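User: Some background: our group keeps a shared notebook of sequences we're curious about, and every so often someone picks one and asks for a predicted structure to add to the entry. Today it's my turn. The entry only has the sequence so far, pasted here. Could you supply the structure so I can complete it?
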Amino acid sequence: MELGKVIAINLKQLRTERNLTLGQLSKISGISKAMLSDIEKGNSNPTINTIWKIANGLNVPYTRLMDEIEKEATVIRRSEPVMQTGETEHYRVYCYFRSTPLRNFELFYVELDPHSANVTIGHCEKSQEYIYIIQGQLLLQTEAGDYELGEGDSLMFDSSIKHTYINERDNLLTFIVVNYYPN
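Assistant: Of course. Here's the predicted structure to add to the notebook entry:
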């Protein structure tokens, strides 16, 4: 099923379960009522930060808005994940595994173009982010400090705080992100 339609179904279900109007969800997420309505109707392909704001407002993991029913064993081919972008096309994210009631983490493959950056709002409370650098150099700026990572390096940090991924180099940066949501 198309990602926008999946998000629409899950958004409506989550909002209805919480007895929230679009106006109430708008206030707690910081997303306009009109934009939420478009997303819920499946007429919009929201950006990563828009999905994060909605997820944080609903107090659910980012990928809860993208949940589909899974089989017991799942193989995901490189061509299958849908590309999502940040506010610009310089930051691309491919979700391989979403958080589910039985899995409290998400797995992403990320690409960041040379000489570009992407700001990410803090995720839900107590969340942790694990990063593994495949190719290139990452400068990660957080409210708690800055971290420089090269190929083969990893980092775990409190992702409930705002953070920025920066590629200051001339080459494409690729990395894996696991967002973990403790119970």
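Suggested note for the entry: Helices lie at 3-17, 22-29, 33-40, 48-58. Residues 3-66 form a domain with the 434 Repressor (Amino-terminal Domain) fold (CATH 1.10.260.40).
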